[in-house]
Design goal:
With 79 residues, this protein is of the alpha+beta class. The protein is built from 3 helices and 3 strands, in the order E-E-E-H-H-H. It has a 3-stranded antiparallel beta sheet.
């Protein structure tokens, strides 16, 4: 799976953290969640961390699933 890219974050004066993906808002973290995120951002791969926190970590495998032979063709009737 390709590495995540295009994520950024901005820490605001009120302590919240705004997460964006390719310039579009992807989430806002406040309070304890924002503090936990910032602590993790200090010590790891920020792109992977942002993908995980926004829920975008699963993107990339949908194309593989769509092209899988099991998902080709029409509907299968049972019964």
């Amino acid at each position: 799976m390709p590495r995540p890219q295009g994520f950024t974050y901005e820490e605001r004066k009120d302590g919240s953290v705004v997460l964006t993906h390719h310039g579009r808002p992807a989430g806002v973290l406040r309070g304890a969640r924002a503090a936990k995120f910032l602590a993790e951002a200090e010590s790891g791969d920020v792109q992977l961390l942002l993908a995980r926190w926004t829920g975008a970590y699963r993107f990339g495998n949908e194309r593989q699933a769509r092209n899988h032979p099991r998902n080709q063709g029409g509907r299968t009737r049972r019964g």
